[in-house]
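Why does this matter for the project? Reviewers at the last site visit asked to see concrete outputs rather than summary tables. In response, this paragraph embeds two records directly. Each consists of the residue sequence and, immediately after it, the corresponding structure tokens. Nothing has been edited or filtered.
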Amino acid sequence: MAQRDESGDWLGLRASEQPAEPLPSLDLRTDRAHPARVYDYLLGGKTNFPVDREVGDRILTEWPGSRTATRAARAVMHRMTRHLAETHGVRQFLDVGTGIPTGPNLHEVAQSVDPTSRIVYVDNDPIVLAHSRALLTSAPEGRTAYVEGDFRDPEHFLADPAVAGTLDFDRPIALMLVNLVHFLSDEAAHPPVRKLLDALPSGSFLALTAGTADTIPELVAIGSKRYSEAGIENHLRTRAGVERFFDGLELDDPGVALINRWRPELDDEPALADHEVSAYAGVARKP
């Protein structure tokens, strides 16, 4: 069950993002580590619990640069969103596997380019539901929606009225799969990606990131092992393995690239070196 401290606030949640009452049956599963909360901790967030921080601290002890790699994985989402909005004129985004809100969120980046942008967030983690108000702060000209759904069952959440009420499936939509597929095997990840792409109109886009050990194999293997020990499934992929997700699509330059090499000019921060990152990114258009 969700827990509160002596003041009545929900433990682990920022005061500004306390869930609206009532949420009496919300089970945040605080007895085991969760990848979204470990990720939040590595980002420097506060939406996590001791079991998540234990995993994060073990990783940081053995791989101090993991916090830099995690922040780089978040930053590339901002660049992909901006690129899609500015270069391709995308005004609709379907973000599956949203994770815990961390500003700026996707809709804030997209609506900074065009306030009319419309975004649907999808996740099945109860702690994301608890924070979903932070994902619904749309510019008045646009719209955002949060749908509870599992990436592995796209037919279910695509049928949610909030999806059709927010996105126009006669116009291009960017499917955002950021920091998600490395928690699934190829057998589990590829079918729902195909189903989601099949549901989108021609001219839509896939933006995807995936973890890899290609850059610093020994250190990344430590992080992978610590996740596994905590019961968190994870699958690191080579560049060729990530490229498979884009079969049949038209990749944007620079193709599937390490996240530090994916359009670093769109970021205000200096580009990182290869040994500081542990993920690939790519953006591609559906013909």
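We now turn to the second protein, recorded in exactly the same manner.
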Amino acid sequence: MTTSLEGTWNLILGASSGIGLANAKALAAEGAHILGVHFDTAEGQEKTRATVEELRSMGVEAHFHNANAASPRSRAELVPLFAELTAGRPLRVLLHSLAFGSLLPYLPADGGPALTQRQMDMTLNVMAHSLVYWTQDLHRAGLLGEGSKIYAMTSAGDQKVTANYGAVSAAKCALESHVRQLALELAPSGVAVNALRAGVTLTPSLERIPEHSSLVELASRNNPHGRLTRAEDVADALVTLSRSTSSWLTGNVIGVDGGEALTT
């Protein structure tokens, strides 16, 4: 059965730019309230304030918090606040769209730096393990229940690597494993958990990858649609999936790439 998203509460981790921001706007356009967590500089915070005003102009509530979403302290402070704002109603959507990790090779090249243990641990914690910790805390607070949807953003890096992408690739593999385990454990509660594998999308996180120009060129040339994936494409898919109250679509990696994976 499908239902309206109007009046639902939705939490986006990584809400201030790229795919997270596009989803915040798409959900707000459906009349859904937005809770956002982001980690920005002073310049970024100014843009985020404008985003919050834009969302509120659509007639919804929007509350964004500049905090490290991978920090236990942030979760401890924000989860009770979110429970108060939502009056304890379960979230419809939890979107994990955290894209902060180390982009260094495992072995030094030409005298350059190599990945350290601390950088590996940070990348896995932010981009993968934090999904589990947020889910645990939200579930404990009663903010996940029948009809809730959890989405985690993955990428073709779950199988493909480049010289500098090893830690992020490992994080994507771990993230998808977490999705499967959470889908299993949350099924009795009627909560669906899936990973969304976006195609190559021009976002700030993509631009930090040293080899991103070649990735963009290849995807632009080979995507059956003749263009790159847009953040709005991902948001459209998430909104469509989230209208369903069923939890039967769960534990999957769902390609939102216009067929890019078929040809690259």
